[in-house]
Design a protein that fits this description.
The complex is a heterodimer of chains A (764) and B (483). With 764 residues, chain A is mainly alpha-helical. A two-stranded antiparallel sheet of chain A has the order 1-2. A two-stranded antiparallel sheet of chain A has the order 3-4. Chain A has a two-stranded antiparallel sheet with strand order 5-6. The longest helix of chain A has 21 residues. The radius of gyration of chain A is 28 Å and the shape is globular. Chain B is globular. In chain B, strands 1, 4, 5, 6, 7, 8, 11, 12 and 15 form a nine-stranded mixed sheet that branches. At the A-B interface, strand 5, helix 25, helix 26, helix 29 and helix 30 of A face helix 7 and helix 8 of B.
């Protein structure tokens, strides 16, 4: 754990109360991994790093032996002389005042700060010791740390978090109240609000294991699979159209149904991934395994007449290679597409060795232009028969009798040769390469077959330093809003260092040791005391740790785009809980598809659905890649152009406009208002119920007073029935005939207001 | 000039603040829509991030009239009498010299040269050649700079468009407008910094894609916001029927009070930021319809842009709207006019397309000039590549088509510190290869940024370990065309 010595200092910096920022604190012991490498990587490696073609003066600073050697251009001098900054060219050049000598040179537009220069000086003074990059060293099970307040911890995770807090003299927040924690838990495990029934049950349950019981029951809900699948849709760049020019329809949704199914079955992570990477290569493979390989065919596929076939075929292989690197290894492999990686030890040759695994698909660049149902999947493809639906693929929610085809993987009979593509250009062949993996991560041993099945075995080799860390980090990120490694797509040299390196390793090793059991991992996280803290943000904590790196509280986060929709539909009672099936087209502002289309294909015009299809969960909203659903994009949903492992989380006026004016929200307000008015209860009781359904807690006195007064005011506003009718004319869900429309309009306004509360769409 | 410098400094200061925010409080995305007054605080030169200019900008705003589908240079601005002389003869291999072809003509047995169906004349002091299809543009020729030596790398629409707008053919990089919004912020607290307007002609069309105005990895406040001159100029802007402004105000006051209760409990600054975003949305609801209302434009303006400018969704209406948005401080107004993909029926289709855009494009120049805005507004007109000098498919006396041609094409720029009344760059007599002063797409992008006071090598954003920029790893400012 030597590599992690330095993290203490980094965290300390966050806790400092003076004017010093993180960057300005000088550690007692300078660590290569935590203090020096980030500087060298960011400011020096582009010219003195792994990329052999761009290396200046033959000097390489990312490897100790190379940096200690006599300089090529001046053999009497050395870049680094341990313990002697004054004799080290690195220090002399970065601290030079001579504009001809200074490093980095002016032309790079990069500059070292005084502090950075001092860090490097001190590091040399202390011996200029290099360390292996933490993420490329296999995780070892660390010891559970000892803590002072032992009774705080609920499971192993908490010891790691608490140890850090105690070192910093920061107290964790107390446990959140039952209503808050239930909403948080329900959103994290199912993506849906808990609902009145569950809230009542949980509030009434005074038993000591009440929390564990509710965790168990939520994990069993079929909505769990949907929630977990949502992130995987971003990772796999799933969409309902082919992308590119004409962007016509594709029928890839059975693959999405499989993902939900796999999560609900609690398929182990190694199996989940192996099937997706190599389901077609499994001995005695099943149709379910074949369907899983749709993962690698979710990328965009062109239908633009006139493209050069090979250019696009290579593009698809590139997409798969990059997605493999980002999603499963958490590294920016794609940077080695045109040249050796500038920061990480991946050569361009190694890029094309990984590329070779995905280069043998029986596919072409342009199979067909915009056309009929036969173009909705591209070869290799599978057909899903009625027989399949009855048996092996019973989870596929097919609703009609039409032929159903899905793009999947399939190998050519003869091996397609793979070459390094010079500068990444599709027809600029360099040396021929064979399938392989980057040496620095884990050499591709002889025991593995040189195909995607062998690649999966390599991925799940317990010596692979990345696979488990990367996945547990992604799950952590989904729950806490920030990964233990903040840059969840980059564990390399330029990525952020883990905030809790030992915790990350503990989770990663524990996950492997327990059969890559995903539900167990999720349960572990939500059962921790760390997770159960309240989200109250004291002025002190806001000042010292605004990002909540130390995890001394629960972070408040706006929920993802799809959940915004789910909360609105579920709380109003409109939600149709059907799982899977073809994606649906709910309300959308008019003319969006029409304005952007080439006019070809069945997606030239947006044909809105009716009935139950208007009220499906957000993850089933049809994604046409070139015109993604606006209410989703506005809330930072991925456009599914390429693999994404992390969404932005913004707060913009356009989001306010959606919440105020989207017919989905307005209709839900009207429907919920009608339901409440039909109940034989007093007005305050109605408002309390509404607040509980939408915000998932009882309102306090002040809140109920404000809402009651607002309702009374709105009753006056809607004294004119015609005025009321105008407001009510939104959405297709019928209005009960016998209802008083003036009351309904007034109540609807109150509902809309509650939907627009910040807390409604925030995990608190 | 001093004022320009000062204003620029303030915007730079804003960006510094924002980059701090995005580092520190990732989700507080106040972005370009923040109240400018917040940023009048002290500036500290030494702590400015890279990308801050060391020169004053020439232009403050951009209006980009993108001609989507790629209009032919040979029927617009690149006059090639030789092609008429050699009508029907084979394209010499020495001229083609290995240029790759699209899948549409790669298997064509012959490549018969075809001259323009339309005549060309010389105009203005610059004596620039312009085809008869663009009579209005011809009248403003001394205000524009025609570049006849553009070249690009892509040969198909999707990658070529993406390349023009984001600097890369593939991938989810920020669009030019997003970079400007990120670099300079907004001039108007009630309008987004980057807006997009779509229209379509009757010619063979290619779609547009929201990735062309994406924020990529930048904060989503820098995303292009689609505007229209119709009923609902911005998505979800309009309050529902039956709800007046007074009631909306009341609701927002309720909201603020309720949100404040939870702020008291949680102390999370995100809650107050949310309240601010609702206030901003409210202001947009008033400001946007005022800007997009074209009905109050005087007759002479309507006449200038042509009667189409009163029909929502036309190119002419969008040009007029672009002027209004720009005038109100929108940093980057991006228009797309579709229908320029003349693989066949070029003479008739292109005539229609030109008619749709010619008058309004020229009107925009005239209008900006008469308002004294042309000097500070950079106007750009052009497509994603050019078209071949040989015919695609069958060729008759009055009908032919042209395939995609990335190696040489024409665009024009005006205002914003670009030399007026010049023609820059030359193609060979076949209109196939650039023979002098080539301008690559990255050069063009570097030049646009430069005019706005941004160094394209310094305006970077670090994402997944790499500092990205609009011009990727290339690009040189085309100083020859600058005042």
């Amino acid at each position: 754990m030597l590599a992690f010595v330095g993290i203490v200092y980094a965290i300390q910096a966050c806790n400092s109360s003076g004017n010093e920022s993180v960057e300005d604190q000088m550690p007692d012991t300078v660590s290569y991994n935590f203090h020096v490498r980030p500087i060298l990587s960011d400011k020096c490696f582009a010219c003195h790093g792994p990329d052999a073609n761009k290396r200046e003066a033959g000097l390489r600073l990312d490897i100790a032996e190379a940096a200690y050697k006599a300089l090529k251009e001046n053999p009497s001098a050395h870049a680094l002389v341990p313990f002697k900054p004054g004799a080290s060219e690195v220090f002399l050049r970065i601290s030079s005042t001579d504009s001809a000598l200074i490093m980095p040179p002016k032309s790079s537009h990069l500059k070292l700060t005084t502090h950075e220069i001092a860090v490097i000086e001190k590091w040399i003074k202390q011996g200029a010791k290099y360390e292996r990059h933490w993420a490329f060293t296999p995780p070892k099970m660390p010891k559970i740390p000892t803590v002072k307040t032992e009774d705080w911890a609920k499971n192993e995770l908490d010891y790691f978090v608490l140890q850090k807090l105690e070192q910093q003299g920061v107290k964790p927040n107390p446990e959140a109240d039952k209503e808050r924690i239930l909403k948080r838990l329900s959103l994290d495990l199912t993506g849906l609000p808990p609902g009145i029934e569950l809230m009542d049950k949980y509030l009434a349950d005074g038993s000591s294991n009440a929390y564990e019981k509710v965790v168990e029951s939520l994990l069993k809900s079929p909505a769990y699979g949907e929630k977990m699948a949502l992130h995987w849709m971003d990772v796999s760049r799933y969409a309902d159209s082919h992308g590119y020019q004409d962007d016509n329809y594709r029928s890839q949704w059975p693959w999405r149904d499989w993902v939900i199914h796999a999560f609900n079955q609690n398929m182990s992570y190694d199996q989940f991934i192996t099937w997706q990477l190599a389901g077609d290569l499994m001995p005695n493979g099943t149709k379910e395994q074949l369907l899983a390989t749709g993962f690698n065919r979710n990328h965009k596929i062109t239908e633009e007449g006139g493209v050069i076939d090979e250019e696009y075929r290579v593009e698809y292989v590139t997409d798969r290679t990059n997605a493999f690197g980002k999603a499963l290894l958490g590294v920016t492999l794609e940077c080695a597409h045109c040249h050796d990686h500038k920061y990480d030890p991946f050569s361009q040759k190694e890029y094309y060795e990984v590329f070779a695994f995905f280069n043998n698909v029986k596919e072409v660049g342009l199979e067909s232009s915009v056309g009929g149902p036969e173009t909705y999947a591209k070869k290799p493809l599978m057909e899903i028969s009625n027989e399949d639906l009855k048996k092996v693929l019973s989870f596929v929610n097919k609703q009609d009798t039409n032929k159903l085809i899905v793009s999947v993987m399939g190998e050519r009979d003869t091996l397609r040769k793979t070459y390094i593509l010079n500068r990444g250009v599709y027809d600029n062949h360099g040396t021929e390469v064979a399938a392989g993996t980057p040496e620095s991560i884990l050499p591709f041993g002889k025991q593995y077959a040189k195909n995607r099945l062998g690649l999966s075995k390599w991925l799940f080799d317990k010596q692979n330093p990345l696979t488990s860390r990367v996945f547990v980090n992604q799950v952590w990120q989904q729950v806490f809003g920030r990964g233990l490694v903040k840059t969840s797509g980059d564990f390399g040299m330029q990525g952020e260092l883990p905030s809790h390196p030992e915790l990350l390793d503990w989770l990663a090793v524990d996950f492997m040791n327990h059969g890559w059991n995903i539900k167990r991992l999720v349960k572990q996280i939500v059962s921790s005391a760390t997770y159960r803290q309240s989200a109250v943000l004291s002025a002190e904590k806001l000042k010292t740790d605004p990002e909540n790196i130390l995890l001394s509280r629960s972070s408040r986060h706006r929920i993802p785009a799809e959940s915004v929709r789910d909360v609105v539909l579920a709380s109003s009672g409109l939600l149709v809980k059907t799982i899977g099936g073809p994606s649906v087209k709910p309300y959308q502002p008019e003319g969006l598809w029409e304005a952007a289309t080439s006019g070809r294909g069945i997606l030239a015009k947006y044909t809105q659905d009716h009935g139950g299809s208007l009220y499906r969960r957000g993850m089933y909203t049809f994604i046409k890649r070139t015109v993604p659903p606006p209410s989703m994009s506005i809330f930072d949903a991925s456009n599914r152009d390429q693999c994404e492992v992390q969404r932005l989380n913004t707060n913009t006026p356009l989001q306010a406009l959606v919440m105020m004016n989207d017919p989905t929200v307005l209709e839900a307000s009207r429907v919920l208002a009608a339901r409440l008015l039909q109940e034989k209860t007093a007005v305050p009781a109605k408002l309390i119920k509404a607040f509980r359904m939408i915000v998932c807690r009882n309102p306090n006195e002040k809140e109920i007073k404000l809402l009651s007064a607002y309702y009374a005011d709105q009753l006056k506003v809607f004294e004119k029935k015609t005025q009321a009718e105008k407001v009510l004319a939104v959405g297709e869900y019928p209005i009960p005939g016998e209802i008083n429309k003036r009351n309904l309009a007034a109540m609807m306004q109150v509902m809309t207001t509650i939907y627009n509360l910040e807390e409604t769409i925030t995990k608190t | 000039m001093e004022k320009d410098f000062l204003e620029h400094g303030l915007n730079s200061n804003r960006r510094r603040f924002l980059s701090r925010l995005s580092l520190g409080l990732g989700s507080v995305a106040l972005g370009s829509l923040l109240i400018p007054d917040l940023f009048t605080g002290g500036m500290d030169e030494s702590s400015l991030p890279p990308g801050i200019p060391d020169f004053a900008p020439k232009a403050k705003r951009v209006i980009y009239l993108f001609q989507n589908g790629a209009p032919s240079q040979l029927e617009s601005f690149d006059y090639k009498p030789k092609l008429r002389e050699m009508m029907g003869q084979e394209l010499p291999a020495s001229i083609r010299s290995g240029q790759r072809l699209t899948g549409m003509t790669a298997n064509q047995a012959s490549f018969p040269l075809v001259g323009s169906y339309f005549d060309f004349k010389q105009y203005g002091d610059s004596r620039a050649w312009i085809s008869d299809l663009f009579p209005y543009t011809a009248k403003v020729v001394d205000d524009i700079c025609i570049i006849k030596s553009m070249h690009t790398e892509a040969i198909n629409h999707d990658p070529a468009l993406t390349f023009f707008q984001t600097g890369a053919q593939q991938g989810n990089r920020p669009s030019m407008g997003a970079w400007l919004s990120y670099g300079l912020g907004s001039e108007n607290k009630n309008l987004p910094a980057f807006t997009v307007l779509l229209s379509r002609g009757k010619g063979n069309g290619q779609g547009v894609y929201s990735k062309l105005w994406t924020n990529g990895f930048l904060d989503s406040t820098h995303q292009g916001v689609q505007f229209s001159s119709g009923e609902d100029p911005v998505l979800y802007l309009k309050d529902p029927a039956g709800l007046n402004r007074f009631e909306r105000r009341k609701m927002l006051d309720q909201l603020a009070e309720l949100n404040n209760i939870s702020y008291q409990e949680f102390g999370d600054p995100e809650i107050s930021a949310k309240v601010q975003q609702y206030e901003m949305a409210y202001r947009m609801q008033t400001a946007v319809p005022e800007t997009t209302d074209l009905s109050k434009e005087p007759d002479d303006i309507i006449k200038l842009y042509g009667p189409d400018c009163l029909v929502p969704g036309t190119f002419a209406a969008n040009c007029l709207l672009a002027r209004k948005l720009s005038e109100d401080g929108v940093r980057f107004v991006q228009l797309y006019h579709q229908g320029w993909d003349q693989h066949g029926n070029l003479p008739s289709e292109m005539a229609g397309q030109a008619k749709d855009v010619d008058q309004a494009s020229a009107a925009l120049i005239t209008d900006l000039k008469q308002r004294g805005l042309l000097d500070e507004t950079l106007v750009i007109w052009g497509g994603e590549f050019g078209r071949t000098n040989y015919s695609q498919g069958a060729m008759t006396k009055d009908n032919y088509g042209r395939d995609h041609h990335p190696r040489c094409f024409s665009i024009w720029m005006a205002g914003g510190g670009v030399k007026p009344g010049i023609v820059y760059g030359e193609s060979d007599e076949f209109g196939y290869n650039v023979i002098s002063n080539p301008v690559h797409v990255h050069d063009f992008q570097a030049t646009v940024l430069h005019q706005l006071g941004l160094n394209h090598e310094k305006l970077t954003f670090k994402h997944l370990g790499r500092r990205y920029r609009l011009t990727d790893v290339a690009g040189k400012v085309v100083n020859d065309i600058l005042i």
